[in-house]
Amino acid sequence: MRNNLITAGIATSVLLLSTALKANEAANQNTIQASDFIDLFEKMGGQHLGYRKAHANGLCASGTFTPSPNKNFKGAELLSKGELPVSIRFSLGGANPNSNEKSPGARGMGFQIKLPNGSLHTFTGNNFPVFAGKNPEIFYGFLSTLLPDKNGQRDPSKTLQYIQEHPSVQANAMWNKSAKTASSYANTEFFGLHTFFYEKSNGQKTKFRWHIEPSLGVKTLDKAEVAQMPTRFLADTFAQQLKDETIRFTLMATIGKTEDSTVDPSQIWPSDRPQEKLGTITVKTSGGELCKNINFDPNIISAGFTPSEDPILRMRSAAYAISFGKRLSGQ
Question: What is residue 24's predicted lDDT score, i.e. its pLDDT?
């Protein structure tokens, strides 16, 4: 009973927050709002009550984060408290919780590290290294071209024309064109896409983007292998790997230079930028629903870290809050 009351209270609070966010959004009708994305996701993948409005098909996991202190992040509480507990969620893109796992395309990973003082640091990434659009308006426009018409038919020429007219979508479109089916979440690399900052006690700032490297290597399935797989195989594959070997991910930071964009996730930074290891995630368990009520908002970060002014990143907090409130209230 107590847990139900707590959950209900959280849902009410988040719904109130969502209402306030919508009210603020209504002040500017000329831009795409977070609520527009929630509506669009439901049109694309169907309405599934009580599920996340994006990345609905997911797998919970848990483990530990072992930090690797270094000069650019010296003094960061996240990296100076020893081994910390981490909650993890792997997922497929889309709003359908029963989506076909044989399909190539987006895979996601969210992990939330809990510090001794109770504060949280959240990382949310995808397996594609570049975002589909430099701002919410272009991204929304791109997704809108994927909607079927009144006869249930999609028009690929409309999508192609949009991509041709919007250069910031093109790199992601090229990635999707060549994407293969991931063999396992444990064999997938994930990219944070957005820019963040860490400020030392002396005021010096480090600009960085993060990504995750799997210890078991990146592996995909060819067409023959995909044909032999069931539509749902990722949870079982991951559980078997966890039983047979150790699953780890290395959290890396790419250090940006002055000329590297901080506000456009559709731009990849040059490959010669220095890399620093932030730590290692070791997975201990998988399955269950421990991550069900976690909001993996990438703007929830620990002391010393700040998000950039990236409009896609800023939009995520509002979209995640609306989705979180709907999920906890059974909508």
Answer: 41
At residue 18, the pLDDT reads 45
Give the angle subtended at the CA of 86 by the CAs of 187 and 75, to the nearest 5°. Answer: 110
In the chain, beta strands by DSSP E: 58-67, 84-92, 107-114, 120-126, 181-182, 190-191, 196-199, 205-214, 220-221, 248-255, 275-286, 305-307
2-328: what fold? Catalase HpII,  Chain A, domain 1 (2.40.180)
Instruction: Specify whether 55 is catalytic.
Output: yes
Which of the residues 48, 55, 166, 194 is marked catalytic?
A: 55
User: Taking the domains of the chain in order of start, what are their residue ranges?
Assistant: 2-328
Q: Give per-residue pLDDT as tens, 75-113.
A: 999 999 999 999 999 999 999 999 999 999 999 999 999
The pTM assigned to this predicted structure is 0.89
CA-CA distances (angstroms) from residue 71 to 80, 178, 274, 311? Answer: 12, 37, 13, 29
Residue ranges of alpha helices (H) inside 145-228 are 156-165, 167-178, 223-228
Closest C-alpha among 36, 97, 86, 47 to residue 63: 86
pLDDT beneath 70, residues of the chain? 1-30
